[in-house]
Amino acid sequence: MRVLARSLFLRIFIWFWMTVIVTGIALILAFLLQRGSIPSRWNGMLNDTARYSGTIAISEMDRGGVPAVSSYLEHLEWEGHLQACLFDSSGVALAGQHCAGFEEMAHHVMAARTPMLRMRFGILRAAMMLTGSDGQAYIFATELPAGPRTTFGANHFSFLTEWGVALLVSGCICYLLTRYLTAPILRLREASQQLAVGNLSSRAAPEMARRRDELGELIVDFNGMASRIEQLVIGQRQLIGDISHELRSPLARLNVALDLVREGRSSDLAVDHMEQDLECLDEMIGRLLTIARLDAPSAPIQFMAVNLGDMISQIVRDAEFESRKREIQISLSTGEEYWIEGNPELLHSAIENVIRNAIYYTHAGTSVEVRIESSGTPPGLLVQLVVRDHGPGIPEAELIHIFRPFYRATESRDRQSGGAGLGLAIAERIVRLHHGTIRATNAAPHGLEVEIALPLVHA
Amino acid sequence: MERVLIVDDDVGLCELLAERLRADGFALEAVHDGNRGLERALSRDHALVVLDLMLPGLSGLDVLRSLRAQSQMPVLILTARGEDIDRILGLEIGADDYLPKPFNPRELIARIRAILRRTTRPEMPASPLIVGALRLDPALREAWLHQSRLDLTSVEFALLEAFLRNAGRIQSRDSLTETVLGRRAGPFDRAIDVHVSNLRKKLGAAQEGEWIKAVRGNGYLFAARSPDR
Predict the structure, then answer these.
(1) Which residue, of A1, A40, A154, B138, has the greatest Cβ tally within 10 A?
(2) How far apart are CA B33 and CA A104, in angstroms?
(3) What is the CATH number of the domain that holds A121?
(4) Residues of A with CB below 8 A from B81's CB?
(5) A431: pLDDT confidence band, cut at 50, 70 and 90?
(6) Is the ipTM of this complex over 0.85?
(7) Helical (H) or strand (E) element with B4
(8) What is the DSSP-derived secondary structure letter of residue A456?
(9) Total tally of structural domains belonging to chain A
(10) Do A415 and B56 touch (CB under 8 A)?
(11) What DSSP element (H or E) covers A24?
(12) Is the CB of B16 less than 8 angstroms away from the CB of A257?
């Protein structure tokens, strides 16, 4: 199972290892097959060795004739695993048991009159012309001592050990190399399977991400993607939970109001409530769609240069109509012109939500202050919009929640406050989309202060 | 006019329900937070409490727990659909019945009636029921195991009564739901099982063996005699 599951591992491993083995064999073959592959500085020594044996063979010939030579050659083969042969000057074999193999070399030496070395099938042979004490010329051909025959032929055990060690070492290296390549892939696969099953917090091993190569980058990218998905899914899940919960209240009221009407006990109360609840549902659905679009925009949002001061003045003027009914003053203080890069429609809706929220919660007869100023380090990097009301403020512990969809301060949970609790959530998403920040603090002695900071455009 | 207390933070809903229930002869008093709700529920001014579990301040379950520590007043809980855990918890803590929001007001009225019918039953035959060491007196609304008085909610009392009247006979979950809760069992409705399990715990507390056996195929059997130890 495990082995099958790691088929990429197996494939890479086998390919690497085969490559190493084949390369090794090719090298050996090339070494064995190449003529004259013996380095020239050895030639003299090899020739001397051959000449030494040859001189002895010829002196044996002089002393005892062919039988003496034959016994010497047998002795050579017995003692040193060396085959040798003695030819006369016309190339006819005189002594030696394996002369057929040397005949070709003997003919070469006869023709060229120079000693000759040859490497074949891993066995080194030498042939040369020698002259006896009586001036008679012979050709002596021999295999050379310490030649490959001892290694290949005589010592099977050491041959196996050497090949075994070579295989083991190359195998280990290939295994480590393959593991190095495939381990991150396996980790990625495990992580993505976990993700697919719904375990959204799973990530590929972070220690893998420290590799600086392409696989490391892939893991970093994968983990980034997983985080984004987790964030989105958790956000959506939370939102769906909140929606179903929030829909319950208007639906419960509609149910009762409808029943009142149906029972013929219809009153203005029931009909008014139905109208309010339908409006509330309509608004909630509209705003939820806005949030869904902001969370995962289907089309890129168009950005352009926006004069923030002009936009805010416009929003404040529109809001004044509403605020006059509750005798609320809106004061706007702004300095120079502030140009930012953004989507005018979205920015308008974000700022309007914040200002209307302030007008809504500030106590009747008080004021809402709107300030625009440059800020940031270095100064002039950001434009900051501050909206401060004189309402009840928000419990300190709940400040971080006020940008969550459907959040309402506890006191306003009676829903007489109206609004779906989505305005600030929308504003927060829009500001984030514009690379800005939004935060809320309680002002002294009471009231809420919302600060929006957006990056300025520099001409 | 029966006086009913509703504890729910939705002011609009309370207003509408007050008007709807008045038509059926109930005087509804509405309270919008948990602490005040508990205070009013303990005042003994009402025949029944309708309690929303999602409350600001003291949560509905906390209100129910504190209430049960001092009073056996009937409680109907309102839960959100899908929040099954809250519903089961509510029944375990001792709520009489539950209704998921949003609900049909007629269903609410029917449930309120069923609970009230059970808790104030004047035509009940007054002879005590005795099975083994168990004695139940419908007139006094008291139940005794050996010499100790059992502390039962109104549902548990009704359930025990139904069991004693039919001791030794298998009763289906559906028929128990009808006689005890006064309504038909809905699909996946485990309310009666929670009440049975609560009753089991209270009977088991007296070191007895098993009085109530679950029977395969949706029913319960009450032992005709005191079970073996």
Answers:
(1) B138
(2) 116
(3) 3.30.450.20
(4) 244, 248
(5) very high
(6) no
(7) strand B2-7
(8) B
(9) 3
(10) no
(11) helix A7-33
(12) yes
